[in-house]
Write a structure and sequence with these properties.
InterPro entries: DUF397. The protein is α+β, with helices and mostly antiparallel strands and about 60 residues long. It has one helix and four strands, in the order ββββα. Helix content is about 20%, strand content about 30%.
């Protein structure tokens, strides 16, 4: 487990850093974390890189 401070980023499709209504992503080896930008101190979802890739594939298939 990596205990480094995560570097959170938002999708450019959500307005970048100007919007507060989106999901933020931080890539830490060997996992990817997701959080709600409106509640940055709240719970984070921890996924493997493969699980995150699968999630993105499923989301894109629905758009």
């Amino acid at each position: 487990m990596n205990f480094s401070t995560p570097l959170w980023r938002k999708s450019s499709h959500s307005g970048g850093n100007t919007s507060s209504d989106c999901i933020e992503v931080a890539a830490l080896s060997p996992e990817v974390r997701l959080r709600d930008s409106k509640d940055p101190q709240g719970p984070h979802l921890h996924l493997t890189r493969n699980a995150f890739g699968d999630l993105l594939t499923r989301i894109k298939a629905r758009i």
